[in-house]
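In the previous lecture we treated proteins in isolation. Real proteins rarely work alone, and many bind small molecules. This record shows how such a complex is specified: first the sequence, then the SMILES for magnesium ion.
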Amino acid sequence: MSDLRLSRSQAAALQELNASRPVKVIAVTGGKGGVGKTTVSANLAVSIAAQGREVMLLDADLGMANVDVLLGVHARYHLGHVLRGECAIEDVIVTGPHGLQIVPAASGIKQMANLSAAEHAGIIRAFSDLYHNVDVLVVDTAAGLHESVLTFSQAAHHVLVVVCDEPASITDAYALIKVLSREHGVQRFQILANHTRRSGEGPQLYQKILRVCDRFLNVSLEFAGSVPYDDYLRRAVQRQAAVVDAYPSSISSTALKNLAVKADKWTVPQGARGHLEFFVERMVGARIGPETVLQ
Ligand SMILES: Nc1ncnc2c1ncn2[C@@H]1O[C@H](COP(=O)(O)OP(=O)(O)OP(=O)(O)O)[C@@H](O)[C@H]1O
Ligand SMILES: [Mg+2]
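The predicted 3D structure, ligand included, written as tokens:
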């Protein structure tokens, strides 16, 4: 573990200082596997960090984690160690590009993909004990309608749904929006079209989803933009780097950086919403007294 660990009183004082700063939490999801959730999460987090914000990226694809591999960072510990009580959440954090703080998960550990609801809640609550400075938390979720996807999405302020123009992606995105809205009280969604191959494809894809959601669900959707299919993105993966850093003027980089500028303007709702949330204490906004002094 790190030699730079804070004493209990320092950690408590920092936690109190940060308590007045609400953290914007963005869950990146999509229903279908392979639509680009991790690519979008990692590049969105790196781009917001490059804009000077304090950003944390949580790999919430708990059994098949790959954020660390994608960004070329070495993770010694992961959330599995936290759940087993072997270390605290701050011990698993690794630093990525532009000071991005990455919370890695395990890969290939079956029981991590099948945690109980209480264990998911435990992970979310553990964030409230962090004394780190965080402006934005980006959460990369797993594929499908797994309970972890629903819990982490519900605990976020903004749900970014990544879709491709394929029938299975559209159907899965719709299914996810339906379950999140009907069973988890999530009413607002941002739709991001990925892998687009011509101009106009993203807005058309958004319209398709909007039509069916308007007809059957009580939700509000916004179009977050389009990320074109880009070979540079694949090359960046080979280099284990974010495309926004490795090929900053590529077409996918431009689109992902535009998304980051947009996401930076999304607001954080005030007050707790009555269900499990990340950083809920900071939402409530504890007051900082003059006695808050680092020892
Ligand atoms: N815009 C794009 N252009 C080219 N390749 C892309 C694009 N977006 C994603 N990819 C590639 O598609 C593959 C799947 O992407 P990614 O791992 O981000 O998807 P995912 O939704 O996180 O998958 P999973 O459901 O398995 O977690 C990767 O090889 C990635 O490099
Ligand atoms: Mg993924």
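Summary for your notes: Strands lie at 24-29, 55-60, 94-95, 101-103, 136-141, 158-163, 188-196, 220-228. The chain is about 45% helix and 15% strand.
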